[in-house]
Amino acid sequence: xxxxxxxxxxxxxxxxxxxxxxxxxxxxxxxxxxxxxxxxxxxxxxxxxxxxxxxxxxxxxxxxxxxxxxxxxxxxxxxxxxxxxxxxxxxxxxxxxxxxxxxxxxxxxxxxxxxxxxxxxxxxxxxxxxxxxxxxxxxxxxxxxxxxxxxxxxxxxxxxxxxxxxxxxxxxxxxxxxxxxxxxxxxxxxxxxxxxxxxxxxxxxxxxxxxxxxxxxxxxxxxxxxxxxxxxxxxxxxxxxxxxxxxxxxxxxxxxxxxxxxxxxxxxxxxxxxxxxxxxxxxxxxxxxxxxxxxxxxxxxxxxxxxxxxxxxxxxxxxxxxxxxxxxxxxxxxxxxxxxxxxxxxxxxxxxxxxxxxxxxxxxxxxxxxxxxxxxxxxxxxxxxxxxxxxxxxxxxxxxxxxxxxxxxxxxxxxxxxxxxxxxxxxxxxxxxxxxxxx
Amino acid sequence: xxxxxxxxxxxxxxxxxxxxxxxxxxxxxxxxxxxxxxxxxxxxxxxxxxxxxxxxxxxxxxxxxxxxxxxxxxxxxxxxxxxxxxxxxxxxxxxxxxxxxxxxxxxxxxxxxxxxxxxxxxxxxxxxxxxxxxxxxxxxxxxxxxxxxxxxxxxxxxxxxxxxxxxxxxxxxxxxxxxxxxxxxxxxxxxxxxxxxxxxxxxxxxxxxxxxxxxxxxxxxxxxxxxxxxxxxxxxxxxxxxxxxxxxxxxxxxxxxxxxxxxxxxxxxxxxxxxxxxxxxxxxxxxxxxxxxxxxxxxxxxxxxxxxxxxxxxxxxxxxxxxxxxxxxxxxxxxxxxxxxxxxxxxxxxxxxxxxxxxxxxxxxxxxxxxxxxxxxxxxxxxxxxxxxxxxxxxxxxxxxxxxxxxxxxxxxxxxxxxxxxxxxxxxxxxxxxxxxxxxxx
Lengths: 439, 442
Hints:
- The structure holds 2 protein chains of 2 kinds.
- The model of chain A has no long low-confidence stretch (mean pLDDT 96).
- By secondary structure, chain A is of the alpha/beta class.
- Helices cover 31% and strands 18% of the residues of chain A.
- Helices cover 29% and strands 17% of the residues of chain B.
- In chain B, strands 1, 2, 3, 4, 5, 6, 7, 8, 9, 10, 11 and 12 form a 12-stranded mixed beta sheet that branches.
- In chain B, helix 6 (192-205) packs across helix 12.
- At the A-B interface, helix 3, strand 6, helix 4, helix 5 and helix 6 of A face helix 3, helix 4, helix 5, strand 6 and helix 6 of B.
């Protein structure tokens, strides 16, 4: 059965390490940290006082007509910048014959941030302390006065989609999926299927998110999922290290342009890599925990390899979900071994690293930035490290590329990086894996 | 060669009831579930009415005993989805870990997928504000974020966040029914349900699952979620809602706005061959899903907050679905469109229908269950599909409600035959979906 090959022809990202492909990539290869004190709100007394924020970013410099997008949330603003880079790299600005009805969108975008101050004010104004309940009339009186309609509507999770459609005149199939931390990996995989069925000629896909706002951080702090290493933020994200104590919240976006190889070649586009395989499973285990064997994660990896027609030994790098939580990193290691390890030979497992050690966890956008890193790894033959992996543990015995990037470009073996696998596992047990291959 | 996809079970949940029978009876009688809001005092929020789920709804009745504890971490949206999935599985005669924990499941878990549309879930304000108030000793303006960070937030249960992640609708359903195949959560406003159903159809067609749960559910009966919708200007105001039961009048010349509802619909889609292999009764199949289409509206004047006047995006989605079905518009016997009941939405939909059907539109019944159950948001696409499927199965159309003076061409109430249904949706943000159903054994 021959399916059309799906290729990547453009990429862009807006991340805590910068707003263009090469700056961020250089940062990742040099082990740079995008983590610092949180500035989006006053987190001074929160259990976690730091995060990886996007810095010095102005979305207006990326769009044709800012008036179309006034009032957007941070999430959408990141997506517009990332998409503009991808659009440019793919040469779509110079391709006027693209039929708008054949340009589709599949994002894994997160919801926008609450207008926390006015929200808290309205709730407190409506609070009936005796009844321990909200009084609707009192709440409405304040809320209708202080809430801004645009700001409220822009929180809907399909608003990044609506704004990319406006910016690029995309009228083809349009989806937003929000499978927590797995969302943008899933979006890319499903976007590839949209193209394979012939429902579009070009897809813009990826994701965007920020949860760096008071209730976002509150939620993850209450789950004790975040690192509390307030004395040393830049080394707080330490995936696969024995002393890891949780993830570091990041924010940003990544957008890639997908099309069939045939379409890309016909219009003379430069092909960056192929989306060769995709797998999606559900743990169906517990809301609060990952299946201890990594059943769903292993299933997604195996499905993605099968879908690509590749064997475990073909993979040169695994871009791990690697959140730096106790649970994820142990179970992901177990799942990787279940799929990749030949007998007792740990060395049969390809190198694994987590870019979350440097840019934090971009939540819904985490998968697409891994995918972009994988394409750049294939281009340059270099693998980004896992930063801050200072304390190995006997249980976590894979090659996590600790500390320093690995240069395989002059490797005497097969030379360079050919195939990468990228994992994303969502809270609640939705698991997705992509296989990226050199074109 | 695509595999054929059957719709084998329906689980609608709305103000009219839980499950197909009560909903169908209510729709056929032309009943409206729209009433003054019960859950909170909405008299001054800008739109005082809604269609809330029945007062006796309890999610505990829809989960196995062993799962009752987990219902504590379910927002209302999740509860509605869990109920709808249980109803659909039972309606389809499926044995799952949820319907019969000790039984032999109808399908291997890794052959079952789950795609559920969800909205932006709002936090329960009583619970959240009880916590916030501990950090505001001197009134609404005195919230002290330092106190909150230090100790106030500890008033929230540790699992608080997990109640509100949109993917939790699907996650609870996957756990309850032990579905380990592909799973997704679509969050595209009112197009979420249709898109989720489309994703399930594709997964079955490409052989990655034999059975999928799909559809959606949502509740915006929460002051914040409610106000956010009222601010879109699409819902009836106090004066228009004086008689709640007739307030929502989709495709009527007197339409002034919609009403919010809560609920949704989840259906089971099965590969036709797998259905036969599990011994499914051909007589019980509701319909075959023949085609699906999706598109995006680009309407710069309103920044995609409403469809363009001609409903071009809607037409594109419908044409894509009909193309896959191998049918012309002339083959469609009745339509269940979005039908919000606001001129800015009904007008473009009516224009799209005229483009698609021409003069024949006058003979094509166009249903609008939002007159009865309100706008179910991410739940509406699944609910509408349940209605269309039941109409094909029963060979009967429900009543057209609250349309005394129809827009031109939108007056048909009966059809010559009921073999092919077209269900479409659009939504705030501009995503459009269309699904073509054909009566089983037609």
